Amino acid sequence: MIDMMVTIKREDGFHARPASELVKIANKYKSNVFIKRNNRTVSAKSILNLMSLAIRCGETIGLIIDGEDEKVVLEEILKIF
After folding, report:
1. pTM score, two decimals?
2. Is 45 helix (H, G, I), strand (E, B) or coil?
3. CA–CA dist 16, 4 (Å, integer)
4. Alpha helix segments (H runs only) across the chain
5. Which residue ranges does the record assign to the HPr domain (predicted)?
6. What pLDDT score does 55 carry?
7. CA–CA separation, 38 and 31 (whole Å)
8. Structure confidence at residue 34 (pLDDT)
């Protein structure tokens, strides 16, 4: 299991396009992927869940990945933050 903090560096924050990219990555693999912000944890396999977090540039969020392909998932996800 990978449990780490990630700072959002995208100037426009984490809007629909990067959220959609994250959902595609999360659904492509077997691992479970979760995002934590302000005491809320949501599945990264749902765009509605991700958008409900309203993540902004400069914020630090939690990233949890658990599964047999977690390292590959992490590499792909870090590219979009």
Report:
1. 0.92
2. coil
3. 23
4. 16-28, 47-52, 70-78
5. 1-81
6. 94
7. 23
8. 99
Question: Looking at the annotation, which residues are catalytic?
Answer: 15
* Cα separation, 37 vs 13, whole angstroms: 14
What are the pLDDT digits (tens) for 9-68? Answer: 988 878 899 999 999 999 999 999 999 999 999 999 999 999 999 999 999 999 999 999
Contact 32, 43 (CB under 8 A): yes
**Both tokens assigned to 12:** 């426009």
- Domains of the chain with bracketed CATH: 2-78 (3.30.1340.10)
Instruction: Write down how long the chain is.
Output: 81
* Phi, psi (deg, nearest 5) at residue 2: -110, 125
Beta-bridge partners for 4:
63
Residue with tokens 């590499």: 75
